[in-house]
TrEMBL record:
Residues 8-106 form the HTH araC/xylS-type domain. One of its GO terms (molecular function) is sequence-specific DNA binding. This is AraC family transcriptional regulator. InterPro entries: AraC_E-bd, Cass2, Homeodomain-like_sf, HTH_AraC, MarA-like, Reg_factor_effector_dom_sf. It comes from Geosporobacter ferrireducens. SUPFAM superfamilies: Homeodomain-like (SSF46689), Probable bacterial effector-binding domain (SSF55136). Pfam families: Cass2, HTH_18. Keywords: DNA-binding, Transcription, Transcription regulation. It comes from the Bacteria.
Length: 279
């Protein structure tokens, strides 16, 4: 329930500050979780990004405002976060299917996008395979790069393609992808591709050694072709496992562990490791 409460608190914050210049970072800070984890959980549970939610709510309310007697398009644009009437008109027409000037006419058809309330929905008894393990600290060798939470879902797969196309002597085996979160980084995080230090006898240029601290980990097993299998498991973690779990995520690291084999096979196996603590 904790994550559902957090997300509903985030929705409340967005609604109260809807007409202000708020960012994803502002919302995440208000509910005291990292921007990355908040944005990921919100999009997986609601099916939309935070930006989409705020934009749709504003445009829905702007449509209602334009039906009021004496409403002006420019004033409404400025009130709902647009700097010009032109940018507002384009967004308004994409959302409502008509121009703002047409919305002012009696009988105009507008679209309504209401505030969301997030609840747990219990559906079929599908199995999620996981185990809880306490592991001592260990070292990994990673090629680190910094990403923004808002664009990482597109950029990271491209980095994997680039990594796998490099000469073998320039890299270490691509055993894992590790996210490293800095709570003060304002929506940025480090992501590294690499392996456990025991699997390599050299540190190529641009690679670094990181110590992963001792944690209790929840480890989820995935089977199926990449990238769909692991993406679907992440969604199930947030929508099925996490809302009812007796554990909270420690927002410092997470690891995706890959095995050798055909990544497009229905039998291909991967794991997701997330550090946790009991509630």
């Amino acid at each position: 329930m904790e994550w559902i409460q957090i997300l509903n608190a985030a929705v409340e914050y967005m609604e109260v500050h809807l007409l202000e210049n708020i960012t994803v970072n502002d919302v995440a800070d208000d509910v005291h979780i990292s921007t990355y984890h908040f944005q990921r959980a919100f999009s997986m549970i609601t099916g939309m990004s935070v930006g989409e939610y705020i934009r749709n709510r504003r445009l829905s309310l702007a449509g209602q405002a334009l039906t009021q007697k004496g409403a002006k398009v420019l004033d409404t644009a400025l009130e709902y976060g647009y700097e010009t009437a032109e940018s507002f008109s384009k967004a308004f027409e994409r959302f409502h299917g008509i121009k703002p000037s047409q919305a002012k006419r009696t009988g105009a058809t507008l679209k309504s996008f209401n505030r969301i309330i997030i609840k747990i929905a219990i559906e079929g008894g599908c199995i999620i395979q996981y185990r809880i393990e306490k592991k001592p600290a260990f070292n990994v060798v990673l090629y680190p790069e910094v990403f923004e939470a808002s664009t990482c879902e597109v950029e990271i797969p491209d980095k994997w393609l680039a990594y796998n196309s490099r000469n073998k002597e320039e890299v270490v085996c691509p055993q894992m992808g590790v996210r490293i979160f800095d709570q003060s980084s304002n929506g940025m995080f480090t992501y590294g591709i690499g392996c456990h230090i025991d699997l390599t006898n050299h540190i190529p240029k641009g690679f670094k050694i990181y110590e992963i601290p001792e944690y209790t980990w929840v480890i989820f097993s995935c089977k199926g072709p990449m990238p769909d299998a692991i993406q679907n498991m992440w969604k199930r973690i947030y929508t099925e496992w996490l809302p009812q779990a007796q554990y909270s995520f420690i927002q410092e690291y997470d690891i995706e562990l890959y095995t050798e084999g055909d990544i497009y096979s229905e039998e291909y196996e991967t794991e997701i490791w997330i550090p946790v603590m009991e509630k």
